[in-house]
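Cross-posted from the bioinformatics board.
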Amino acid sequence: MDAAAARATVAVPGIPRDDEGPVFREPWEAHAFAMALALHERGLFTWSEWAAALADEIKRAQAAGDPDTGETYYRHWLATLEHLVAQKGVATSDTLHRYRDAWDHAADRTPHGAPIELTPGDFR
Amino acid sequence: MSDHDHDHHHDHDHSELSETELRVRALETILTEKGYVEPAALDAIIQAYETKIGPHNGAQVVAKAWTDPAFKRALLEDATKAVSTLGHVSRVGDHLVAVENTPQRHNVIVCTLCSCYPWEMLGLPPVWYKAAPYRSRAVKDPRGVLADFGVSLPKETEVRVWDSTAETRFLVLPMRPEGTEGWSEQQLAELVTRDSMIGTGFPKTPGAPS
């Protein structure tokens, strides 16, 4: 585990891990983790700010009936990323939706087995 | 939050991304376009954890096939069915096919890039799968690609390339390393690397540093 990731696992409670460091149930979870690490490095937020935002997100989800089994940890992580980038003026929720829909369109038109790539035509 | 992930189905002619994957890709694209993250930097972070992502059921399956001839027969006949009897594998997809390496034939899988990649079996797809050249070169010049990975095979060994489709994913059953007589399934599973189940590597050899 590199130093940046080590600091993150100390500063942010609840990151699923084994003796060596973070572990991920699915590939997208590692992407979400890596994005937070990169944005932190870039100075978009501090880890204490991140931890507070994540705790809020988890509280909200639990109030809405999230079972809190640990399996949903990175879903909250992703929602926190989305909130923070909106709050910091990086991307509005509208923009996030537009890109989400574009990726959906790109997957739809991509034959199975070919790399899925986003093109301007995917934005409608 | 939507729960599309569990509602995952495979279409026959186009790629599938789960709701969560769509959101992750959306965010990644925006952050990249705006210059907040470098794709290479993200890849480097993810690569550092590649052995820590997803369950690695494939190694268990391979080790069992090495020690249990009846299971091996069942695996080669119908891998989906054989793997589902192990209980600890939650979802292996619609149609998993195990292809056996022998002194006569070495198998290599060319993988897809959408969520149909069988990471439940193999862990995270290595970053080099993303490189478009890998796919085309693996089909045209499999020995050249294998040489890049440090895998050299005897001339008389046939190299067979398998391209996964929406309906079929593949798992290479590598040859059991020599010098492992009497080893337990658990010990053997430790030798099974992801690359050996893709065909771009061999299992670890006993006693070699891991």
